[in-house]
């Protein structure tokens, strides 16, 4: 598996996320037919995996978490939807100061 940074092709999405959320960065990646949206804010990081043709596979979740956050699925909140998965990591408040 390979993550390809396609952020430049999603300028409108990035602009909207940065202006309408608390995100300090937004990155968009392609993982084959799966789109990966990675956002970070001072208190949390979120990843959305989206595939319009099929459900997201566990090995895709594990791969993306390892590559982008160096975490496992046990360390984040995982919310499954139809053809997408949202992964959310809340940073330790003590490490923010």
In short:
The protein is of the alpha+beta class and 97 residues long.
List the helices and strands and how they pair.
Elements: E1 4-5, H1 11-20, E2 25-31, E3 34-40, E4 44-50, H2 58-69, E5 77-81, E6 84-90
Antiparallel strand pairs: 1-2, 2-3, 3-4, 4-6, 5-6
Strand-residue fraction?
35-45%
The SSE string, one letter per element, is EHEEEHEE
Spatial separation of the terminal alpha carbons: 36 Å
Number of strands: 6
What is the CA-atom radius of gyration, in angstroms?
A: 13 Å
Largest sheet entry: 6 strands, antiparallel
The low-pLDDT segments are 93-97
The helix fraction, in percent, is 10-25%
Indicate the overall shape: globular
- Average per-residue pLDDT, rounded, comes to 90
Strand order of the largest sheet: 1-2-3-4-6-5
Figure out the total of helices. Answer: 2
Structural class: alpha+beta
Describe the 3D structure.
With 97 residues, the protein is α+β, with helices and mostly antiparallel strands. The chain is built from 2 helices and 6 strands. The longest helix is centred in the middle third of the chain and has 12 residues, at 58-69. The protein has a 6-stranded antiparallel β-sheet. The chain has helices at residues 11-20, 58-69; strands at 4-5, 25-31, 34-40, 44-50, 77-81, 84-90. Strand 2 and strand 3 (34-40) form a beta hairpin. Mean pLDDT is 90; it is low at 93-97.
């Amino acid at each position: 598996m390979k993550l390809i940074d396609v952020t430049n092709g999603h300028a409108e999405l990035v602009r909207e996320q940065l202006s309408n959320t608390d995100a300090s960065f937004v990155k968009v990646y392609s993982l084959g037919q799966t789109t990966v949206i990675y956002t970070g804010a001072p208190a949390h990081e979120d990843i959305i995996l989206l595939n319009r043709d099929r459900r997201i596979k566990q090995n895709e979740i594990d791969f993306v978490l390892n590559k982008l956050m160096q975490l496992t699925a046990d360390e984040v909140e995982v919310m499954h939807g139809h053809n997408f998965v949202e992964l959310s990591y809340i940073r330790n408040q003590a490490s923010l100061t």
